[in-house]
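ingest -> fold -> write
write: protein_1
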Amino acid sequence: MKMKRMFGLLLVLSLVVASFAACGTKEGGSGGNDKFYIGGMGPLTGDAASYGLHVKWSAEIAVEEINAAGGINGKQIEFRFEDDEHDPEKAVNAYNNLKDWGLQVVMGAVTSGPSVAVAEETKNDNMFMITPSGSAPAVVKYDNAFQVCFSDPNQGSASAKYISDKGLATKVAVIYDSSEVYSSGIYEKFASEAKNSNFEIVAAEAFTADSKSDFAVQLQKAKDSGAELVFLPIYYQQAVLILTQANDMGYKPIFFGCDGLDGILGVENFDTALAEDVMLLTPFAADAQDEKTQNFVAKFKEAHNEVPNQFGADAYDAIYILKEALEAGNVTPDMSTSDITEALKKEITQLNFDGLTGAGMTWKATGEVNKEPKAVIIKDGAYTLFD
């Protein structure tokens, strides 16, 4: 009888140990996985939802294509994307949920604040992170994090140089969000580069998260200063209000922004005629005639009845960048998360990648991408390449 009880106890213990081992294998992202678990987070609800939805949808298109073509090193991708509502704390919660699911590589976050917060967590776990659109320099302060988008300083300097080289204005005003790392980071570099340009910043007006609904004071100062162009390194939600209020006061300068303005044409109840001739610097133009862009845009439209924005294009590229780097490093999904990270860190700095958002893209060990921006202008309710 004692022997039977002992045997039964050993059997139960062995089953418990086996179940824990199985959970640890999948949730730890190492050993025994037969798929690559790639996950991300971004705003699927709230004011910035256009960014996150386009990232999610575009990544899903890329994953579907890759899986249909045989996967990565013969293994399929399992993809999952969670809502962070453009909130750093919720982004970290999403990251922890994804770890429990089996996360091995992060494709996210989408906006800068959440990306910075998630980067801290991925550093602690030595998990590879590639963000399609988290552009703040702090996102890539650790060696496991990389960007597909331009960094904020690069957007600021490129915008100033473009305005100067094209002779768009001699007097420029800036309206920016001093409480947002994305906006203030771009403005600081723009202002620095402007000192070497052929235009003058005649007004630099800030707002904060607590005062982002009435821009009458900022617009009046820009108008009184004689600014022919207003630079808006901000997100499209505030840009909609600025364009509407500028129209109400009869002020019609050139409005010029960065990637944060992408999405302005999809705002519900916004008169898109007010966005006519708005310019923005972006790495992606949906009307480009190359086959790769047209195929992506067609699939996106068919699935979601919308034109993809730059955030989506960067996410589509991010998935294919991971594919190329994983294949170059002969990575398999049964490797530990740390080993996958080390392989990706090495291989991404050796890539020369042709994607939707740039040809011949390369990466520094610092995580920043090298690629050329494009200028687009809104004409007849659509983004058009500006020469």
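write: protein_2
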Amino acid sequence: MINEEVIQRAVALRRRLHRQPELSGRERRTAERIARFVAPLRPDLVLRGLGGHGLAVVFTGPEPGPTVMLRCELDALPIREAGAAGHRSAADGCMHACGHDGHMAILAAVGGGLARTRPRRGRAVLLFQPAEETGRGAAAVLADPRFPDIAPDLVFALHNLPGYPLGRIVLRSGSMCCASTGMVISLHGVTAHAAQPETGRSPARVMARLIDLLHRLPDRLGLDPALSFATVVGARLGADEAFGTAPGEARVLATLRSDRDETLQRMAAFVATSARRLARRHGLGYEIERRDEFAATVNASRAVGLVRRAAGAGRTSVPRRPFPWSEDFGQFTAIAPGALVGLGAGERAAALHDPAYDFPDELVPLGADLLSRLVRLCLE
């Protein structure tokens, strides 16, 4: 167990981080706070500025062995906090609504334990990763020329899960959470007087057909709608309240999700091909963009077995199917065996990305204990 003093310091850190959140790609002060916290722990190596504002903290054992990486996230979300806690966000329109403040506190507490007792062999790498929410951070860290110096043999991360009992460990082999991509389809026609719409080219019908196609995408491709689906997240036609003008511009924004990367690519290709065909048929110009791309997070059976051993009997649950949300941790499980572990945040906790969400402090020692046991097991 990690001693109580370390846990209390980590909880206090969590509240400071919650009060001063920063958006993806802007996490400079967050990384500095983590660096100040770990400096007294005397890690064997600290790499700063990884893939942006990322930070890697390394504790090395006296004997050679594998490298085990634990990863958490630095960034917050563009959401205005609705909670009334004393540590509520001081940044208007920005908050840790996904619990990344708690994940950082957990890894900081693990660092406190490793400072007191180094692993017997190998290395433990604590990675504080930037820009998870946009799907860009993991790729940027992996592309950093210093990453090969800390490349893992095993890699783990945890994510809090509201709706599950506090501390319940949730994981499965294979796909743990879905791949996803954002698509932006822009349509360009010609405006006209609303009294003479036939003199222009309105994208209204194409826009409507694309929205319908996206809603029916699983049926069109013969996919299980519980595992592969599209969500229309935005649509705009013409200008606001321009009642005298037939529109010439339209945009449709959608998020596509699937439990398999190859299925997601098939979905995206079908939508793009359909959009091009419809636009050309109606004489419209078009652009199709992909944004916020996430690979599926795939848990290796070996890594899942290690987590279960570290957790002990009776503490784990296996979800029936992958979680529909996405995580860029899949970039790491693509290069090394690993597992994303769900950790119950309480059955009555507000949902992730809810303006009232606040990571439960009680989860810090539970998460730190699990990850500490896991590191010791891998490096014993």
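write: annotation protein_2
The chain is about 30% helix and 25% strand.
The chain has a mean pLDDT of 96.
pipeline exit 0
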